[in-house]
Specification:
The chain has an 8-stranded mixed sheet with strand order 3-10-5-6-12-26-14-24. Strands 1, 2, 4, 7, 8, 9 and 11 form a 7-stranded antiparallel sheet that branches. The chain is built from 4 helices and 26 strands. It folds into 2 domains: 165 residues, Adenovirus Type 2 Hexon, domain 4, CATH 2.70.9.30; 216 residues, Jelly Rolls (Sandwich), CATH 2.60.120. By secondary structure, the protein is mainly β.
Length: 381
């Protein structure tokens, strides 16, 4: 057997603020879809804007079978987080804001456990029709051209009598607006075995400087993860500690990078939920005298960072590292090759994930409210 990488669609335009749909072939063993999106920003639209990367404007990525059955349903940043934990590296991208610069983003969508998984994937012959849907909310105010999408399927060929072990259905199982001092009680569904439980905590954002109103850790200050209706405890503690443990357990540390031109004091999200270190260096633009005036604020913990002073026509390159890629932290992750560590909710029922938002946490946000979510990756045999 071998993997065929096919340029299925090349730079097809996605209309602004619309949903792009693409019907997939009716047969074949599909391991992954690699989505490559690109566009060019319109002048300097992100000097003071909460959303500043092309991926910020991808509001939904769906793979739907026969018009109703969900196979994948995530927003753009959640899809990147899923790929990060699947493959062990950040999906390739060009995050940069400077006048009229191109934006680039690769979005891997895996139907198995990772890229080129020969045991699990999507057998398209199981359905009458499988459709990819990508929704964006970008406008011509941000980008000069339609968003272009390139689609590269990974097909497993010459498989003979091989039968896949199934595919992984991944979706936002539940999302909610956290409330300070309130516990959100959750009982996980029992229908399918669970490969991964991913917790996502996005702080509220203010409308003045686009900074986080609180840390992501306060939105999930206590997580009580139990089996057998609370009789068996699996994890008890805050999200921040879970993220720290996960770096060593999974040997994955989020590290992102980009180029930014931003008004002084205006925050920009760096894709690391809890920043431990960030460094910046002015990018050469023909005006070396401007370099010393472009200084990074270097705010730890916060996923939004800022420039103290903006020198006109001077941009900064930066790199950040820390915890929780795209504000996402695994609570359960089956990683054994034979998947003997799948979580079977039917056997362990009831599986509970009760999540507390810390008292005194600012959750409203004057521009965007805080939001929590549980993403489940479940095996469909």
């Amino acid at each position: 057997m071998f993997w065929q990488r096919e340029l299925y669609r090349d730079s097809v335009p996605m209309t602004f603020s619309q949903t792009y749909e693409e019907d997939l072939p009716k047969s074949g063993f599909l391991g992954s879809l690699m989505l490559y999106i690109s566009s060019t920003q319109n002048g300097q639209p992100f000097l003071a804007s909460r959303l500043w990367r092309l991926i910020d404007y991808i509001t939904k990525i769906e793979v739907i079978a026969d018009g109703a059955e969900v196979i994948k349903s995530l927003d753009g940043k959640q899809a990147l987080a899923a790929a990060f934990y699947d493959d062990g590296l950040e999906p390739d991208s060009m995050w940069r804001h400077y006048s009229n610069t191109p934006h680039r983003q690769l979005i891997p969508i895996h139907f198995g456990r990772f890229l080129r998984d020969e045991l699990y994937g999507l057998d398209l012959s199981r359905f009458n029709q499988v459709t990819l849907k990508v929704t964006n909310n970008a406008t011509s105010a941000e980008f000069t051209t339609d968003i272009k999408i390139t689609i590269v399927p990974y097909w497993l060929r010459d498989v003979g009598g091989f039968a896949a072990g199934g595919y992984f259905r991944e979706e936002v199982w539940k999302s909610w607006a956290p409330a300070a001092g309130v516990v959100e009680y959750n009982e996980l569904p029992v229908a399918l075995p669970i490969r991964r439980v991913l917790l996502v905590a996005r702080p509220g954002v203010d409308s003045t400087y686009y900074k986080n109103q609180s840390s992501m850790g306060r939105l999930m200050s206590d997580i009580d993860f139990t089996f057998k209706t609370g009789q068996t405890r699996v994890y008890k503690g805050p999200l921040e500690l879970l993220a720290r443990l996960g770096v060593n357990e999974l040997r994955l540390r989020p590290e992102t990078r980009g180029l930014i031109d931003r008004n002084a004091g205006v925050g920009f999200d760096v894709g690391v939920g809890y920043v431990e270190q960030i460094v910046g260096a002015p990018a050469y633009d023909g005006t070396p005298a401007a370099f010393p005036n472009c200084v990074l604020d270097d705010d730890v913990q916060d996923s939004t960072q800022a420039l103290q002073v903006r020198a006109a026509d001077a941009s900064m390159v930066w790199t950040a590292r820390g915890l929780a890629y795209m504000h996402a932290v695994p609570l359960w992750f089956a990683t054994k090759p034979d998947l003997s560590d799948l979580l079977d909710p039917e056997t362990q029922k009831v599986v509970k994930v009760d999540i507390t938002c810390q008292t005194g946490t600012t959750v409203a946000g004057s521009l965007a409210a805080a939001s929590n979510a549980i993403i489940l990756s479940r095996l469909v045999r």
